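Below is a filled-in request sheet from our internal design queue. Each sheet records the structural input a requester submitted and the sequence that came back. We keep these sheets so that new team members can see what a complete request looks like end to end.

REQUESTER: design group, bay 2
PRIORITY: normal
MODE: inverse folding
CHAIN LENGTH: 320
BACKBONE (tokenized):
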């Protein structure tokens, strides 16, 4: 199986580190792609550093900035930010074969209509993962908590793509991940959305790790209100909910207590967040089904103000 992972962020580096030791033959290869050529060169030289509480391992994973530099691929796993997915696809899609399976691993649910919007030739697969990963530096990923990963299709796949996704699930399982194929991936993506909606904006606003959200009554209450509001919207939308969203979110906070969420990492690096794809998606779906979403609207407003502030700070620094 020839696999390309696009995006050297926390999850991209995590999956690359776990899969690379399993790809040792010409027919079983893995590449990591980065749009930033300078960073791609750096990662090629220094390797990807995978760290857990048991130690570190460095992998010399091939990193490229141009998809044309690698051989044909069976699977492309997109691990880019939600807001970057469409531009990324527009760049890479002309270079991909219709036989290549596209797998999308993004936070939120704003990308679920990507097949219709971009008129993709075949049905892509979607992934939801609760693995806890923090990027400590370029190519340096800390695996801070074990979770579950689900893979599935929103529409009917070709027989080839179905087999490819099953093979990907097997490879990930062999790499030590808890992976399952889902017949209802939309519900799994919503289950992850509940967790992201509760944890991500609050960790960014309070500047706290996942576990630290539980040490304050104020943050716990806000988390509860956000998640339960999202659950109400999901039920009105006909989403199947098999696990209590609030209990699941609290469990993730405890299980990944040291994790620095992706949105907090964005805040600390003064980057745009995925708030529109997460809490913003809850708001949009709430409007569609007639459910008010004041708690989600509040954190979206606060995160947007935070983004505006550090954008202004960056501009002022550039002027000075």
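RETURNED SEQUENCE:
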């Amino acid at each position: 199986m020839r696999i390309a992972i696009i995006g050297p962020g926390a999850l991209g580096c995590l999956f690359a580190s776990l899969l690379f030791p399993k790809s040792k033959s010409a027919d079983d290869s893995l590449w990591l792609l980065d749009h930033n050529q300078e960073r791609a060169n750096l990662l090629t030289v220094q390797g990807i550093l995978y760290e857990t509480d048991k130690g570190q391992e460095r992998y010399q994973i091939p990193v490229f900035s141009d998809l044309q530099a690698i051989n044909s691929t069976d699977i492309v796993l997109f691990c880019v930010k939600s807001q970057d997915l469409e531009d990324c696809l527009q760049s890479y899609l002309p270079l991909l074969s219709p036989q290549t399976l596209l797998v999308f691993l993004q936070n939120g649910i704003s990308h679920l209509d990507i097949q219709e919007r971009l008129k993709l030739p075949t049905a892509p697969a979607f992934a939801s993962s609760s693995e806890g990963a923090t990027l400590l530096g370029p190519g340096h990923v800390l695996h801070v908590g074990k979770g579950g990963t689900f893979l599935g299709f929103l529409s009917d796949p070709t027989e080839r793509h179905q087999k490819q996704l099953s093979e990907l699930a097997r490879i990930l399982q062999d790499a030590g991940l808890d992976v399952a194929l889902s017949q209802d991936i939309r519900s799994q993506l919503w289950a992850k959305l509940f967790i992201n909606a509760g944890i991500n904006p609050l960790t960014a606003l309070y500047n706290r790790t996942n576990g630290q959200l539980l040490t304050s009554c104020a943050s716990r209450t806000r988390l509860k209100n956000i998640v339960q509001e999202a659950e109400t919207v999901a039920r009105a939308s006909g989403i199947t909910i098999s696990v209590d969203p609030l209990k699941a979110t609290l469990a993730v906070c405890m299980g990944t207590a040291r994790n620095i969420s992706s949105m907090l990492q964005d805040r600390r690096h003064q980057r745009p967040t995925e708030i529109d794809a997460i809490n913003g998606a809850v708001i949009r779906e709430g409007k569609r089904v007639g459910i008010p979403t004041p708690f989600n609207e509040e954190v979206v407003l606060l995160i947007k103000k935070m983004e505006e502030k550090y954008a202004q700070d960056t501009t002022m620094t550039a002027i000075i």
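SHEET NOTES:
- The first helix runs from residue 10 to 19.
- The chain has eleven helices and twelve strands.
FILED BY: M.R.
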